[in-house]
Specification:
Elements lengths: L7 E9 L2 E10 L4 E6 L8 H11 L3 E10 L9 E2 L1 H17 L8 H6 L4 E2 L5 H48 L2 H21 L4 H15 L2 H20 L4 H20 L4 H21 L4
Parallel strand pairs: 3-4
Antiparallel strand pairs: 1-2, 2-4, 5-6
Helix pairs in contact: 1-4, 4-7, 4-9, 5-6, 7-8, 8-9
């Protein structure tokens, strides 16, 4: 399985009894699935079907489904005036005006908007439902494919940053004995300056404490394990955004601990570089489903 980005777009056009329909899907990142449907009222009854199809294909993201209808050029020819309804409406208007002489009469637009006056050609709801569902399935197919393409790019970026973190960790290990040796030399010089001589036992005690204080082997090992776990999650694929976000927190924690134990400017810079890489990964992970 591949990982998928939460951002995406797809558009499908189909012919319906009501006219030409355009169905668009667009999404941005979100912690949960938040679907909003914007459609003409004559299609609102089909929203539950469309929502079910959407939730079956997408797990996370703020998704907007927008449906637009464009009437066919011959749509007006399909409209008919209900003469009996117009006659009854005009007769009722005359009776009202006779009792309320100052009342305003109905305009043509008032009559045309009156419920039941204009009768459009009947719509086959089953056929319209099938058309809508087919359009949604096609849009979802294109939409999911675009999200997976974007997800593949995000995975490449994450792997590149992981390589950077591992390279920094690998370069740090050989420096630890050098730091202890440099500290030993400074300690000897300091003791000789203060006391005129260097006590070997005192030096060994101080070196042991210093080596323990700056020991980052455990942090480096955990960093390596976390990087391996992130790679495993990326290879596994599927809906892994939340798990990856948790792993970013773990990587950030180890980078912070490494910085707090830094015994040289070089190691401090290594910690900072790791934090930058982790933060770059975190930004990308926020877009993964």
């Amino acid at each position: 399985m591949m990982i998928a980005s939460m951002t995406g777009y797809a558009s499908v056009t189909a012919e319906t009894d009501l006219g030409m329909m355009t169905l668009e899907l667009r999404a941005v990142n979100n912690r949960f699935l938040d679907a909003v449907f914007r459609m003409p009222e004559e299609l609102r009854a089909f929203e539950p079907l469309l929502r079910e199809a959407l939730s079956g294909a997408i797990s996370r993201g703020k998704v907007e489904c927008r449906i637009n209808l464009t009437a066919r050029p011959d749509a007006q020819a399909a409209l008919e005036v209900n003469d009996r309804m117009v006659s009854a409406l005009l007769a009722a208007e005359q009776r009202v005006l006779a009792q309320a002489g100052g009342a305003r009469g109905l305009s043509v637009s008032d009559i045309l908007r009156w419920p039941g006056v204009m009768a459009a050609t009947e719509v086959d709801n089953e056929r319209l439902s099938r058309t809508l569902q087919q359009a949604m399935q096609q849009a979802l197919q294109d939409f999911v494919a675009s999200r997976k393409r974007e997800g593949a790019k995000l995975a490449d970026v994450l792997r590149e940053r992981l390589e950077g973190i591992e390279a920094l960790a690998q370069a740090t290990r050989p420096k630890m004995p050098q730091l202890v040796q440099a500290y030993q030399q400074k300690l000897v010089e300091r003791l000789q300056e203060v006391f005129g001589q260097a006590d070997d036992q005192r030096i060994q005690q101080e070196l042991a404490l210093f080596a323990q204080k700056i020991d980052v082997d455990e942090e480096l090992s955990r960093l390596g394990a976390h990087c391996s776990e992130v790679r495993r999650i990326l290879k596994q694929g599927g809906v892994v955004g939340k798990r990856l976000d948790f792993m970013m927190q773990e990587l950030q924690r180890e980078a912070n601990t490494l910085g707090s134990k830094a015994a040289s400017l070089e190691l401090t810079q290594t910690s900072v570089d790791m934090k930058v890489l982790v933060e770059q990964m975190r930004e990308q992970v926020q877009n993964i489903e």
